[in-house]
Amino acid sequence: MVRSASAILFATGIGWTIDHKARLPVVRSSIVAGRLAVILSSIGFWALWTRDSITARTDTAIFSILILLSCVEKIASMANLVSVERDWVVVIAGGSEPGLQKLNARMRRIDLLCKLAGPLFIALINGASTTIAIWITLGLNAVSLPIEYFAIAQVHRMTPKLGDPRLTPAVHADSSAGQATRYPLGQMKEIYHSFRLYFQHPACLPSFALALLYLTVLSFGGQMVTYLLISGFNSFYIALVRSLSVIIELSATWIAPRAMSRTSPNRVAMWFLSWQMLWLAATVTFFWSEPTAIVAASGLSAGTILSRVGLWGYDLCAQVIIQTEVQDDIRGSFSSTEAAFQNAFELLSYALTIALPHPEQFKYPMLVSVAAVFAAGGIYAYYLRKRRGHLVHVPCTKA
């Protein structure tokens, strides 16, 4: 929760930095900060794990430092993600929407594979030795730091346009904004400008709908995994369904670009959201009507897995819409504000399970999660109706 809160607090500053500073130093700084935070955290975890001679006060101090380092890693990760996925990729694609769709899909594919392979690999090592798992985490980050540092420079050299100045001067902040953010009043003004820019932009609705999908406990994260374990499933089953979920999610990275190549991303996004709403509605209906806990949890797992195609399909479509509609000089500010909302909704999902911690109460956060998806669908449907003048393409229906 503290990590998500830190991302919300620093979102405006991250956006301003991305929009006003040279691209390569910003990304390199995020790489160094993120990797060093993980390396130092690994040392801290090692100290806690071998804490026979550590006093309680030292133990608390190390834990506090670990929380601070996790915030640094989160902020660096957000800066890197916004810079690369919302700015660099657009420039590299060079105005080609099919090229942009392919780049987005490949990056999401790599992201999902790493999210499966990384935790699984470390979990297997941790089963044998926690100390070895900690040192491997440290070593991998130490090795990846120089690789990422020089690889991103190579990408920058291969795409000369990344070194060009912004197409237009940043209109969302005056020349003193960077200095003003040092002071509370100036910082509040900058936050106000960022939020006003975000909500007045035509791409706000698909962006906010995407952020709203982060208000969920229906993913194979800590909350749902805990519920499945309490319901009677073992670690092997959890690993199996998580792996299956990633495989299903990966299918969206092939389906979405092909669908967008045949029609507009605006229309395809509605298809994917509808798919997600359909499966989650069926899942929650089954869950509430099934009296046997383990059967209900099995249905919950199956429905959640199938709904993930809609989630990542919409993610890719919304990303294309935002990338093509948001102007060059405000990409950082717009996308960092979106990231702040994503973290706020993620924070709210954690708060729900803290407020309703008992297994028999899990159905209520689940209902809120489904309601959030339907709210996102409603927001996007309004955007689509406003943009196209209709939701259903009548000629296609008649055909």
UniProtKB/TrEMBL annotation:
Similarity annotation: Belongs to the ferroportin (FP) (TC 2.A.100) family. SLC40A subfamily.
> Topology in the membrane?
Multi-pass membrane protein
The record's listing under InterPro entries reads: Ferroportin-1, MFS_trans_sf
- Would the keyword DNA-binding turn up in this protein's UniProt record? no
What parts of the sequence cross the membrane? 27-49, 203-230, 268-288, 364-383
One Pfam assignment: FPN1
Give an example GO molecular function: iron ion transmembrane transporter activity
Source organism superkingdom: Eukaryota
Outline what the protein does: May be involved in iron transport and iron homeostasis.
Quote the subcellular location field of this record.
Membrane
- Keywords recorded for this protein, A-Z: Ion transport, Membrane, Transmembrane, Transmembrane helix, Transport
Organism field: Extremus antarcticus
Provide GO CC annotations from the record: membrane
- This chain belongs to the protein called Solute carrier family 40 member
Taxonomy of the source species: Eukaryota, Fungi, Dikarya, Ascomycota, Pezizomycotina
